[in-house]
């Protein structure tokens, strides 16, 4: 870009960030929508306020060829927001970019596989993290950001704050998970976080990439031939509770799903009996045959 064009882009990009904030978009959405504008500007080496329909077609054709459909969808939505709220234009052509409707079922670990994965995880922080993730059905970001004050050992519940959609929820805290968290905290004794990052960065959190790498490594060592990410532990949690007989709506509440349809994908059962939620969650955690118990 020329100097003047770069200045124009910087001004429009700043407006983009401001408008995203004013619209109450979540941090992850702001990050994705702003990246979409940066990406297309870098592709054309120009401010994206004067692009033609042919330019957009060419850009999205190469994006589809080089990136996942989830990325394509985010870039489309981010550019639609940019044109509508910053440039005051409606690019109807962007609506033509439609990712295919795919309904895939996630891979699920059996309870025995969950137990062996946790048992064979080499570092204690990842062992405790994977148990926490699974035994409370948390999203990766929810578990990473857990704070000491979120743990209520009197009521045996955990306050999940500012989760997806800006929603809070309470989830049952299994006794086994509480003991693991206490044991691990006694090692690092961070004043705020349950899963802190490196010692030289007091306010940092456990690295997301490190978590994913550790799980990938242990899955491979366990000779498990499934596509497993940290989020699959949450999927497994939901599926195992349904198999235990916990009713669908209770599982929906535990997971923080807005729609029951989202939860329903975990089961093909025709009858699900009502069962005490706290009892079911503790039974699920207690049933893990772990080869370590933190010396307790």
Please characterize this protein's 3D structure.
The chain is elongated. About 2% of the residues have low confidence. It has 13 helices and 3 strands; from the N terminus they run H-H-H-H-H-H-H-E-E-E-H-H-H-H-H-H. The protein has a 3-stranded antiparallel β-sheet with strand order 1-2-3. It has 296 residues and is mainly alpha-helical. It has 2 domains: 94 residues, DNA polymerase, domain 1 (Orthogonal Bundle), CATH 1.10.150; 176 residues, Orthogonal Bundle (hpI Integrase, Chain A).
Topology:
Elements: H1 3-22, H2 27-44, H3 53-66, H4 69-85, H5 111-120, H6 124-136, H7 140-144, E1 151-152, E2 157-160, E3 169-172, H8 175-188, H9 208-221, H10 230-244, H11 248-255, H12 260-264, H13 277-286
Helix pairs in contact: 1-2, 2-4, 5-6, 6-8, 6-10
The assigned structural class equals: mainly alpha
Number of beta strands: 3
Radius of gyration: 23 Å
Estimate the global geometry from the Cα principal axes.
Answer: elongated
Counted by DSSP, the helix tally is: 13
CATH topology of the largest domain: hpI Integrase, Chain A
**CATH superfamily of the largest domain, called what?**
Intergrase catalytic core
Total individual domains = 2
CATH C-level class of the largest domain is Mainly Alpha
Query: Helicity range of the residues?
Result: 55-70%
- Spatial ordering of strands, largest sheet: 1-2-3
Biggest sheet character? 3 strands, antiparallel
Mean model confidence by pLDDT? 87
N- to C-terminal distance: 63 Å
Beta-strand content estimate: under 5%
Stretches where pLDDT is under 50 for at least 5 consecutive residues are 268-274
């Amino acid at each position: 870009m020329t100097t003047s064009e770069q200045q124009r882009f910087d001004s429009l990009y700043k407006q983009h960030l401001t408008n995203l904030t004013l619209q109450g978009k979540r941090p992850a959405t702001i990050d994705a929508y702003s990246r979409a504008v940066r990406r297309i500007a870098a592709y054309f080496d120009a401010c994206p306020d004067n692009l033609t329909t042919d330019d957009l077609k060419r850009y999205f054709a190469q994006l589809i060829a080089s990136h996942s459909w989830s990325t394509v969808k985010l870039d489309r939505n981010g550019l639609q927001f940019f044109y509508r709220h910053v440039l005051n234009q409606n690019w109807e052509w962007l609506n033509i970019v439609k990712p295919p409707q795919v309904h895939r079922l996630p891979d699920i670990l059996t309870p025995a596989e969950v137990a062996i994965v946790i048992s064979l995880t080499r570092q204690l922080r990842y062992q405790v993290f994977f148990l926490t993730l699974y035994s409370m059905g948390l999203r990766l970001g929810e578990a990473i950001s857990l704070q000491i004050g979120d743990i209520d050992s009197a009521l045996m519940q955990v306050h999940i704050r500012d989760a997806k959609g800006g929603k809070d929820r309470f989830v049952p805290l299994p006794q086994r998970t509480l003991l693991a968290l206490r044991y691990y905290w006694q090692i690092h004794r961070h004043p705020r976080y349950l899963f802190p990052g490196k010692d030289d960065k007091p306010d940092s959190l456990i690295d997301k990439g490190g978590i994913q790498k550790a799980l990938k490594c242990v899955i491979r060592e366990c000779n498990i031939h499934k596509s497993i990410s940290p989020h699959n532990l949450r999927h497994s949690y939901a599926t195992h509770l349904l198999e235990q007989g916990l009713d669908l709506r209770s599982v929906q509440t535990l997971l923080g799903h807005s729609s029951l349809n989202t939860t329903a994908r975990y089961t093909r059962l025709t009858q699900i009996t009502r069962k005490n939620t706290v009892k079911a969650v503790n039974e699920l955690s207690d049933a893990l045959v772990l080869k370590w118990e933190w010396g307790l």
